[in-house]
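Sequence in, structure out. Go.
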Amino acid sequence: MNEPSPLDKAEAAVREAEGSTDVARIVAAVLATQQAMQQQPQAPAQQCQHGPRKERRSAGEWVAIAAAVCVGGFGIAFASLALAILGGVAGIVVLVLRGVWNDMQKGR
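Output:
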């Protein structure tokens, strides 16, 4: 009813192989390995590290972000203003050149 454990089977194999030193060494090594494996606790499975960040931004970081957004906003505003002025100047130049062209055509 009671089956021998693998350790008992290994010990029986060692007793049978007492005459052969090579087999005894191999079996002894296997037994030592099994005993060492049974004594060592199992390493816990590595848990996923992709949870939410627990670090919070400091007040200084938020001030720096707000300053960067403000500077970027002013930069976009000035770029838009520069494009509007450039468009107006280009329109005036086109009207002046058209007037000069018309005057040249009438002068012929």
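Check: Residues 68-108 form one domain. The radius of gyration is 44 Å.
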